[in-house]
Amino acid sequence: MKKKVAIFDIDGTIFRSSLLIELVEAMIAEGLFPASLRKTYAGAYKKWLDRRDIYDKYINAVVSAYNKHIKGVDHKEFLKVARKVIAFHHNRVYRFTRDLVRDLKKKNYFLLAISHSPREIVQGFCKGLGFNKVYGRIYKVDSRGKFTREMLHLDLISDKAKVLARAVEKENLTLRGSVGVGDTESDIRFLKMVDRPICFNPNKKLYDHARRAGWEIVVERKDVIYKMGKNKKRR
Fold it and tell me: Residue 70 and residue 2: Cα distance in Å, rounded?
């Protein structure tokens, strides 16, 4: 029998931050990236923190900084830093999605994780959560064990709907009874594919789409979980 699939975005959906942001800060702290790198995204961060601009501009600035400075970094040294980040942050997850993952695991779902953070750190973070398959950005390593700026399979990794379709085909899965969890409008395409789309702590564009589509909306704030949409129970 084909297994049911559940697909989760990771950053800001299970992890209460961004793996890439924490990785960049750790790379700076370990001396693999220059401290001056923070200046390239400090303005975007402050504008987001002061609620004068959107989070996307901040995270895109961090991505740009990472892509620019990863070239030449030794892959083994990178892995050491990634493991430190995972060890420090592995319990910093949302209760709703953590418990949902556990429940679906018990029901024998195939758990699929997708993130635009580097694959190595996504794999390590998701390992303890019980995910069956993990997709993240793949940065090419040269013959000397150093990173280049080249990203592999970017067309696939950039489109979570394509990743889901590929997993369904390759892993002999079914979308019948499927579950999907996302938090931004970039997740809409894969959320349309599943039977139970859940918009968790959504940004404005995803929230507006979810309201029109009648999708579940879940917001976790402090120790309270609010549920709207198809499932209107609140606890």
Answer: 40
